[in-house]
Amino acid sequence: MVQQVTKGIKISVETNFEGSFYKDYKMHYAFGYKITIENQSKDSVQLNTRKWHILDALNNKEIVSGEGVVGKKPVIKPGESHTYTSGCLLTSPFGAMHGHYNMVNFTTTQRFKVTIPTFKLSAPFALN
């Protein structure tokens, strides 16, 4: 598990390999990840947008950004957390992801970024 705290918001990431398959004459590797966003601050916050940098072992880079996470813009009160699962496809059995969430503090109305730490994606069969 990878964890990081930014401005009182703790991000924890767990990953798993889902499998591989052929698509458009290429091998694809499916990975899942579970993210827990824990509010350790004294103020309620809301996650508004996200931005991901997805890299694979072949040096392909994909940037994904958008509203909320899996269709939600969660409000997280002090001491509470929000957990969601998602996934990505790579064209190699190894890769990594990192990014950030854009959030707003409801007490101060200030917008701030929360770092999503770099986490590795690896298919177990490819490891020595």
UniProtKB/TrEMBL annotation:
UniProt-listed Pfam families: DUF525
Top-level lineage group: Bacteria
Domain called ApaG: residue spans: 3-128
GO BP annotation list: error-free translesion synthesis
Protein's name in the database: Co2+/Mg2+ efflux protein ApaG
Species this protein is from: Snuella sedimenti
Gene behind this protein: apaG
